[in-house]
Structure formats: C-alpha cells, structure tokens
Amino acid sequence: MSFTIKDIATALEAKAFGAVDLLISGAAEPAEAGPQDLALAMEAKYAEGLAKGQAKAAIVWDGADWQGLGLEAAIMVTRPRLAMSGLTTLMDKGPGIAQGIHPSAVIDPSAEVGPGAAIGPLAVIGPGVRIGEGARIGPHVSIAEDAVIGRDALILARVCICARVLIGDRVILQPGAIIGADGFSFVTPEKSRVEEARGSLGTETETTNSAWIRIHSLGGVEIGDDVEIGANTTVDRGTIRATRIGHRTKLDNLVQIGHNVVIGEDSLLCAQVAVAGSTRIGNRVVLGGQCGVSDNITIGDDVVAGGASKILSRVPKGRVVLGYPAMKMEQFIEASQNWRRLPRLMDDIKTLKKSVPLQDDED
C-alpha cells in the first residue's frame, strides 16, 4: 500500500506542507526511515534522528521548521499520540483472514453465519451459535453452543469463546483470549480457614476440613460494542448472573476478570491486572499494570490507579490512588518519603538515647 502525503494529512485532519504528492509506503522512527518511509518526528527531541535516516517526509510537531530539517514534505500535528492512532489505522492491512468459510472449518448445522462473515481454517463453531454480518473468525478459534458474535467483530487465532457468551459489534479479541470459562468458586462443608482468618483478622487456628467443593457457573459473559480484549486475557462467566464488560472498554494482555465482575464503559485495564469476583468497576476507570482488585468491592467512575496498586476496599469516584494498600496518591507519595527517612530517623533515636542518662530504678 502507498499513500500520498496529502492522503495521510487528510486522514489525520492535519496540515501538509511541501511535496504533498510524494508517495509513502510505510512509517518508521527517524533514524531508521528509508526514502519511502514517513518518519515519526512528532516532538522536537526526535529531530536529530532525521539526519541519520533517509526520510524525505515526516510527521513533525506544530511549528517545526520542516525545511530546515532537510525534508521535502511534512505533516504538522498538535497531538502526537492521536496522530499515531490515525496513521496506524490508515496503514494497518489487518489480519489475513480470507473471505468466506474455509473448507477445514467445522460448523454445526444449527449455527447461523451472517452475510460477509469470514471463518478461518480449523475453526469450530458449535450448535446455536450466531455470527454477525461481516465478522471475521481466525484460525483455530472455538465458539461453543449458543454464543452470539456481533457485526464486524474480529476474533483472532486460538480464541476460545465458551457457551452462551454474548459479544457485541466491532469487538476485537486478540489471540489466545478465553471468554466464559468457569469462575474460580469453591466452598467447604464447614467454615473454611479463609473464612476464619477473615473473621479473626489472622488469629492462628487449625482446621481439619479442607475439601473444596465446586460451585458451578450458570451465568454467562456479556461484552458490549467496540470492546477490545488482549492476548491471553481471561474473562470468567458469572455464577448466576453474567459477568459484564461495558461498551468501548479495553483490556490489555494477561488480564484476569473474575466471575460476576461488572466493568463500565470506556474503562482501560492494563497488563496483568486481576479483578476478583463480584467487584463493580465504573465508567472511564484506568487501572495501571499489575493492579490487583479485591472481591466484592466498588470502584467509582473516573478512578485512576497507578501501576501495581492493590485495591482492597471501596474507591470513591474521581480518586487517583497508588500503593499497597491503595491510598490517595498524595498520601502514598508522602508516606513513601517517610519510609525512605526511617533509617535516618532510627539513627537519630539511637543518638538521642545515648545522650539521655539512664534513671535509677528508685526514680
């Protein structure tokens, strides 16, 4: 694929300068760009790389002296990451899933495949499945009974969609995602050691009954429109009601969503986030990488949690939290400064103790 500078600028809703008919076939970092690449020098700190590469054109920051940088053409942008979204959307060829149904795919006679849908090699489509118009199903995908896939969904290689899962329109499931496996839910005939520990706040006791009995998962998973779920991410089905993920929410790779969890719209969960069962997460929430969220709590709208935070209790809407246990960010920063001061504080205490004479027992 080739694009003119004018084509790219139009797609980005940006201004183009110079030789706008120059053809571009790819994008590259400035120092590695070839003659037909568009160099990505969207901030001044990347400008020096242009002299090391061979790019004739670049995306540059607003107000840049593009001619002084030795370019024949330039596109100026004010918001670099937004420009990256538009550029990569334009240049992405998409997965190589051929139109139609591959001869090796196994499709139950009762399944419904919408017009224009594509189903790749060795995919298995179970009874009662409904696949929407224009959906693309990659190789080795498994879709179990009575699942519903919306219009223009993209289900990539080795995804496993379990029974009765409902997936909205334009959803993207990256390779290896598993949607609708049983929740991790077990009980003991008598009160378990975990229940006793919670009740006693950790008092040491002994238990003799350790046989865990499965609680089966009867609920499903419901995923809204325009959701994206990363590679090897897992979303467990609910116990009775469904686990739900709202419209336009994005889950990164290696995220674990427990049974009965409800996540609102436009939220962002980064890599290795784990959310325990029956927790409710609001709209526009951002959880940084490796955040852990306890079970049966509520996180309000617009909460932001820094990476590796451990959220053990309710978080009100709009709060920014960090740490273990998660607390207001300014409190965590102050506390961490105090932790670093502890060795010096202990030395000061030792010095003070030496300077104070010991009193007699009679006193």
Protein traits:
363 residues; alpha/beta; Udp-n-acetylmuramoylalanyl-d-glutamate--2,6- Diaminopimelate Ligase, Chain: A, domain 1; twelve-stranded mixed β-sheet; ten-stranded parallel β-sheet; 4 helices; 40 strands; flat
Which helices and strands occur, and which strands form pairs?
Elements: E1 3-4, H1 5-12, E2 15-18, E3 23-24, E4 26-28, E5 37-41, E6 57-61, E7 73-77, H2 80-91, E8 100-101, E9 106-107, E10 112-113, E11 118-119, E12 124-125, E13 130-131, E14 136-137, E15 142-143, E16 148-149, E17 154-155, E18 160-161, E19 166-167, E20 172-173, E21 178-181, E22 186-187, H3 193-200, E23 213-214, E24 221-223, E25 228-229, E26 234-236, E27 243-245, E28 250-251, E29 256-257, E30 262-263, E31 268-269, E32 274-275, E33 280-281, E34 286-287, E35 292-293, E36 298-299, E37 304-305, E38 310-311, E39 320-322, E40 327-328, H4 329-355
Parallel strand pairs: 4-5, 5-6, 6-7, 8-11, 9-12, 10-13, 11-14, 12-15, 13-16, 14-17, 15-18, 16-19, 17-20, 18-21, 19-24, 20-25, 21-26, 24-27, 25-28, 26-29, 27-30, 28-31, 29-32, 30-33, 31-34, 32-35, 33-36, 34-37, 35-38, 37-39
Antiparallel strand pairs: 1-3, 2-7, 22-23, 39-40
What does this protein structure show overall?
This protein has 363 residues and is α/β, with parallel strands linked by helices. It is flat, with a radius of gyration of 28 Å. Among the domains are: 3-91, MurE/MurF, N-terminal domain (Udp-n-acetylmuramoylalanyl-d-glutamate--2,6- Diaminopimelate Ligase, Chain: A, domain 1, 3-Layer(aba) Sandwich), CATH 3.40.1390.10; 183-216, no CATH class. The protein is built from four helices and 40 strands. The mean pLDDT is 94. A hairpin with a 4-residue loop joins strand 39 (320-322) and strand 40. A twelve-stranded mixed sheet has the order 8-11-14-17-20-25-28-31-34-37-39-40. Strands 9-12-15-18-21-26-29-32-35-38 form a ten-stranded parallel sheet, with no helix packed on it.
